[in-house]
Known about the structure:
Layout: E1 2-3, E2 20-23, H1 31-44, E3 48-51, E4 68-70, H2 77-82, E5 86-88, H3 94-102, E6 109-116, E7 122-123, H4 129-136, E8 139-145, E9 164-168, H5 182-192, E10 200-203, H6 207-215, E11 223-224, E12 228-229, H7 231-238, E13 254-256, E14 258-259, H8 263-269, E15 275-277, H9 280-283, H10 286-291, E16 295-300, E17 303-305, E18 310-311, E19 314-315, E20 318-319, H11 326-335, E21 340-344, E22 357-358, E23 373-376, E24 379-382, H12 388-397, H13 401-416
Parallel strand pairs: 1-9, 2-3, 2-6, 3-4, 4-5, 6-8, 8-9, 10-11, 10-16, 12-14, 13-15, 16-21, 17-22, 21-23
Antiparallel strand pairs: 6-7, 17-18, 19-20, 23-24
Amino acid sequence: MRRIEADALDLAAFIKRGDRVLCGQVSAEPQALAAALPAAFGTVGPFETFLGTVVSNSFDAAPADMPFAGYGAMGRASRVARRGRLDVWPLHYSALEAGFASGAIRADVVLIQLAEGPGGRCATLANDYVLAAARQARCVIAEVNARAPWCAGAEIPSDLRIDAVIETDREPVSASSVAAGEVERAIAGHVAALVPDGATIQIGIGAIPDAILDGLADHRELGIHSGVFGDRMAALVASGVFTNARKTVDPGLGIANVVVGSGRAFGVLHRNEAIRLRPAAHTHAFAVLARQERMIAVNAAIEADLSGQINAEAADGAPVGGAGGLCDFSRGASASRGGRAIVALRATDRTGAISRIVPRVGAVTLARTDADTIVTEYGVAELSHRGAAERARALIAIAAPQHREMLERSLVEGAAQ
């Protein structure tokens, strides 16, 4: 293993033309290594960088001809997509770990951030596909960050070969919270009423999920089994809302896959054995989710159509999301005893001019056969075990009032064809 001073790092010495370079995502992003990628691209020539969910500005000013790939256009990766430089792969998030582990998805160079912990053991802030890719990669470069929290469950394998290491001392990438508005608070109120005490929660990131977590502040003995752990969840751990005491799988433990937060989340996670990062083979597994009683999956979306189909991938024709874990968590929660799969979205775009309840979605992320509960600021549509006509009426009832006539008309026109 070669140790390099951070200011002497030259990624061009490790990357070859035509390589696929994998960079850690969300708060696990190795910032110094990510910042060095554009210069390496200018020296080496074409190579592809695989991104996950991006919450930093590391790639905002990448060269115009620098290509990227990813499992979605989540967070600031959507900015790369708007420049036409992001090849979005239509994959479930849970497929990535197995794909990289088997070599079916190639990764030549892997860039990871590590935190040094007890006994010199290193861990990451994400127990995701990046570790699986690192086992198969030609070259692994690690950024050991003195300020990164050490997360239980995300320890790197003892046999993982690391070719080069740089040391940094900087706050890990933080995800800025978005203040909830009236619409988000209304959605949160409807969702909170559907969550029983003792439930286990899966939830994502963004204004609506943050508002929903705030709305759970008066609940009791909730559990965590989620793809994401962030600041709002950390606050509920600190206040005693999330105790994990009534979980039927991993009782007493909060389980997540990646960290998307800031100092509050980092402080709660650091060397905390009661909250563990597990791979997607556990966090997103149908069998695990189905065994977790009162499993409540809460996911945001872009649009829903009158049959119950969900689009979480594109808005107005532009990629702004991805399949992520929507299907995995929805199916698993629906199979859970006392569980529920909730999709929460605004009834319109922020101008009110475009309905997000539509006659037919542009991209189908979640099939109508997997639809359970859809929530907007106007109410709750419970779709499970309902026929097509009942579903349509329930969804029109939670659409924005100014768009309901259009939706009713689309039903009549569709029936006439």
